[in-house]
Amino acid sequence: MTFAMERLGVFAFIVACIQSQGFHASAVEWKGSSSCASATCHGGTVGRGPAWNDSYSLSRSADPHSTSGALLYDADSRRIVAAISPGATDDLAYDIVLRERCISCHLTTKPEDIVSKLKLDLARVGEGISCESCHGQASDWLGPHVLASWTGPMRFEPHTGMLDTESLISRAEGCVRCHVGSRTADGMVRDMNHDLIAAGHPALRFDLLIYSDNMPHHWNDLGDVEQKFSGSAIRVRDVGRLVALSAAARLSAERATASLAKPSSGSLSHAIVPWPELSDFDCFGCHQSLLPRSYRLPSNVDGKPSLQISSGLPLWNAWYTSDMATGSDPQMLPFRLKPGGQQDWIAAANKIADLVSKRAQDAASAPTTDASARMVELRTKLNQRAPSDWNAAAAIYLQMEAAARNLAAQPATHSLGVNLARSLETNVATLLRFSDHEGKDDSRVRSPDHFDPTVFRTRMIEALDSLDETPP
Amino acid sequence: MLTDVRATGKSRSQRINIDYYRQKTWLTRSRGLLALFAAALAAGYCVYVFGSGGPSHLSTGPLAMAHASFENDCQQCHLDFTPISADALRFTSSRNLDRLEETCQKCHRVDHHFRSSMKPEFAVIDQHCSGCHTDHQGRDYDMSNVASKKCTQCHGDLPATCKDASSIEVRTNITAFTAEAHGDFPSLKKGDPGRVKFDHGQHMMPGQVDNGVKGGFTIAMLEPNLRNSYRKSAEGTPQGDDALVTLSCADCHQFAGSPSPPSVGDHEIGRHIAPIAFDQHCAACHSLNAVGKVEDTLPLPHAAPWKEVETLIASKLVGGQQVGSIRMPSDVVRKTPLVGEGYSGALPNLSSISKEGGEDKEMLEASVRANLAAVAQRCLQCHVPDDITDEGIKKLRASDSPTLIPTRWFKRGIYDHAAHRKIDCAFCHADAYPKISSGETASVATSEIGSTAETLEKRDDSDVVMIGGIETCIGCHRDPSSSVPNSLTDEATKELLGGQGNWASDACIECHRYHWQRPVTPMANEVEPQVAISKDGLP
């Protein structure tokens, strides 16, 4: 292996990276995940001891967060950078683009790292999103968090620096800082906007339940905290959706605010921010075939939602809003583009963010939603009409899938839940998959161009009907 | 004085009996008898000498067991008609001392004791082997059991002994083994070199966590092949896998002799402690199984050159990815599919904008570097930065490199752990035990979080010499006529003493050796020893 470190001397590199990880003055002082890595703390061998003992090891070996930094040097990332900044042809320029556009989400970092014009420290890049991104800056809690007396809500008081990963709301809020975005949280811009999507970055469609599933669980699934968290998949999905929508609304307001700021030199956060920001809206409202045979809108006989493509305006944050529950809520929708009307937009978006945040709190503390009731509700709406588009169908699917999980979690309805989940995955989920363009064209946006809402409705109803035939 | 002017010369001469010599005294009358008696006595003595008890009068006694083979070969040590006794030192010629020293050195390869620093009258004492090691005291006589007065004749007043009193670096007036007359051990006052960061108190707690601290290391968390080594037994039943690992001193500190080359008197097992070795004493808990520590990844070697570590990390990453234990950046494998993207969200590979053949290498390099940095941080948990450089590692791994932790702390005395094995380690090493007593728990108020964090993070006793001073010795090692001190009479102390008696000799030779080093000149067929000799002659 002919790494550049051969020229530099490995130890010099190590010393440099250690120094860079916590010894220069800054308002943000990361302790670094190595401080967690002792074998007697969180660096134990996976599977040998309790979950807390191998949480670091498990994260390092299998968590996509730990590779999110290195991913910045893969072919996709290089293509994205080349598209958004064609002049970034040398390594330094490439790293500067990464600093301005990417590392706020892809690395555990701090504001001054964003504006630096130096090459990135590969050791930190390799660490990716480390422990403190989700658990909080550890300077003040690293010592006391080992004490038996370190329990209860006091752990998450602001002065401790430890972030609350135990409550449903706060866990979701931790995720959406990156998985939805923010232009202000932690003093950094995390804005995965239309430019980046156009350049090739996948659009963000956060779902707390799926994302939690796909993380290697470096926690005790059988503990009280997780039992409470996963007690109802319906609640997790509803709350996650509301928290994400609140964050999206806040981001939308922040984008509007930033668009009014005078451009200045310096970091990207002060550069010109486009308005309207297209990533606030449903991708497929615009990115769809305009051929008559492909132009599949629900017919008017099925009823016309309050806002949809046919009106000429794309849905606002369709991934979070396009479901039957929120689609008919006059307080939530509609948002209509008003060119030049950022101030109104800011006020409205913030109002929505506050409103949805309150709803998320209520949903989190509400009694467990009955799965059967949710299924009946969804079936009733499906009987009335097909979903308006892919996003609405996805929302229905996710709610039904959560209901199946709730059923499967109860011994009395376990087989029903398993069968429903299997039926959904086999017969319905495939309808929602994006087309695979690999090797066929040069489209960088994967879309459900084949999606047919009426087929979806039929399959969904069939899946529900099959439950009636399932022996108890 | 008045003179009689009328006395004549004749009258004056007549006052003296001129034939006084003809008169017999009691001595002249009995001289024959005395001669006869003397002859009889001599004859009797000859009869005695050559009879039953004779040999003891021809020599001062049988040679010691080790010298018994020289019993009939006096000239091995003696020159004709030349005294060798210590009492006759002033009559002993230098030729005689040279011969004696040479004779002893044929077997006992020891060197002088600061002889060049002594005044001449003391230098000859140093050269005179039999001055301290007197033979002819019987077969069972221990010639090495040198009386303390032999030492204090000089050490009671060293300035009078040495040519240059200002060069003396030790206490100059040691007359007995008491706190006042001997003083505390200077070796312990020089501090700990402190090159390995460690917290004895934490490691001595069950599970290696303090009271009031979460967690605790269990047997199950150890490397499987080493678990049995750490299981303790309670009433004959070995600990189960869920039991907390409870370390004893002997888990890490084993008795040993002198590592090499041995100095006189310290090669016996127990007079050194075997060096701490990572693979033997640390790896069960702290294996360097970095890079996603899962069961099927091999630990990194300890103290390997960084280039080797780098190569191993890279191969662990690539190999781990192949067997599915390590996730690399491009691996998009989902347990639960995304609604649109499905199980794999990889974007179509549409064009080759990326650097030709470079992206994988750079991704791997980032992962390697992150893991290297993590390993380095792990190293620094115990080691100082200078010791984990390639140069530092090479230096430490050299065969002649001293251990980072001294294997023997007393530079002038010898402590024999084996001889004291019945005594609980805590009697002398109380500082190595947890400071938090049983039942007491650590806690923190929210207002103290910052300072507590600082305190808990920096726990390290590497600069603390955890050996008791002279006060731990003089309770037992005291004058035989003295009474048992109160400090040894309470039940707790008795328990620490493990039933051992509470008196032991206070002789200098219990701890000190007069001859420290091997001769500088190698013996025949012997490679010159590679021991470093300090200017004061101590190894």
Molecular structure report:
The complex is a heterodimer of chains A (472) and B (539). By secondary structure, chain A is mainly alpha-helical. Chain A has three domains: 1-151, no CATH class; 164-267 and 331-368, no CATH class; 282-315 and 370-472, no CATH class. Helices cover 48% and strands 0% of the residues of chain A. Chain A is built from 22 helices and no strands. The longest helix of chain A has 28 residues, at 233-260. Chain A is globular. Residues 1-26 and 298-312 of chain A have low confidence and may be disordered. With 539 residues, chain B is mostly helical. Chain B has a domain at 58-146. Chain B has helices spanning 9-13, 26-49, 55-58, 94-105, 120-127, 129-132, 148-155, 158-161, 186-189, 200-204, 227-230, 249-252, 278-286, 306-323, 359-382, 390-397, 449-457, 491-497; strands at 233-234, 237-238, 255-256, 272-273. In chain B, strand 1 (233-234) and strand 2 (237-238) form a beta hairpin. In chain B, helix 14 packs across helix 15 (359-382). The longest helix of chain B is centred in the first third of the chain and has 24 residues, at 26-49. Chain B is elongated and about 165 Å long. Chain B starts with 8 loop residues before the first helix and ends in a 42-residue tail after the last helix. Classes of the chains: A mainly alpha (472), B mainly alpha (539). Chains A and B meet through helix 2, helix 3, helix 4, helix 8 and helix 12 of A and helix 14, helix 15 and helix 17 of B.
